Amino acid sequence: MRIWWISVVIVLFSSTSWGITIDELATQFAKQPLVRADFKQARQIKGIAKPLNAKGSMIFARQQGLYWHQQQPFNLVLVLTQNKMTQIVNGEEAQVITEESNPQMFQFNNLLTAILNLDKKVLARSFSSDIKGDEKGWVLTLKPIASPINKIFNAITLSGNEFVEQVVLDDKQGDKTTINFFNQTTEPKLNQMELNHFVP
Q1: Which 3 state secondary structure label does DSSP give 105?
Q2: What Rg do the C-alpha atoms of the chain give, in angstroms?
Q3: Does residue 143 sit in helix, strand or coil?
Q4: Number of Cβ within a 10 Å radius of residue 174
Q5: Is the pLDDT of residue 133 over 50?
Q6: Which pLDDT value is given to residue 18?
Q7: Of the ranges 6-20, 114-128, 173-187, which is most confident?
Q8: pLDDT in tens, 150-163
Q9: What distances in angstroms separate CA 105 from CA 48, 150, 152, 185, 186, one per listed residue?
Q10: pLDDT tens sequence across 65-85
Q11: Distance between CA 130 and CA 132 in Å, rounded?
Q12: What's the pTM?
């Protein structure tokens, strides 16, 4: 009788410790068609004691793309969509990158979008993955297994709960970039000015 009771306890504890899966996390994120957040970024360059800091805000709209606005130390706008990547530095003329003009950069763009969407099929082609934790706190580690991403990064680590709260980029040169997100919200909806950022 006691052996049976111990077996039940083991099964119950085992089933509650499985934690969250990538599929469950992707389903959770899919319920957030729009995420707004502020960010602080610190890039630690190998051989330099003081990190390079930046901060700004971002909008990730699953149907439109990513709008990244760095406000300090200089003004930088980066817009990623399915068709192109647009960069504007200090209000100067926009630089537009497409698959035709820079296939490798465009491929990286698509991988970044897949990471933000947790597109399991796309990620499986380029990364091995390991996820720990549950919906209250999880850590997802992606290790590149395919070119060109495996020539750039050792690992990409995301962590959070309801939202992604931190992204750590560990690159092949020994540098590390840490991005912390805060003030995350799913409201308000995109206004017309914001929609214009994603116009083809």
Answers
A1: helix
A2: 19
A3: strand
A4: 11
A5: yes
A6: 52
A7: 173-187
A8: 998 999 999 999 99
A9: 27, 14, 12, 30, 29
A10: 999 999 999 999 999 998 888
A11: 7
A12: 0.85
Q: Which amino acid is at 19?
A: G
Strand ranges across the sheet with 176-185: 95-97, 85-89, 76-80, 65-72, 52-61, 34-44, 176-185, 164-171, 153-160, 137-144, 127-134
Token pair in block for residue 126 = 């380029």
The first and second tokens of residue 57, run together, are 């805000």
Confidence band of 200 (pLDDT split at 50, 70, 90): low
Contacts with 186 (C-beta within 8 Å, 6 or more apart), sequence order? 32, 33, 34, 35, 36
Q: What share of the chain is helix, strand, coil (3-state, %, to 5)?
A: 25, 40, 30
Please provide the DSSP assignment of 12-52 as one string: HHHHHTS---HHHHHHHHHT-SEEEEEEEEEEE-TT-SSPE
Tokens of 179: 């991005």
Rounded CA separation 77/54 (Å): 13
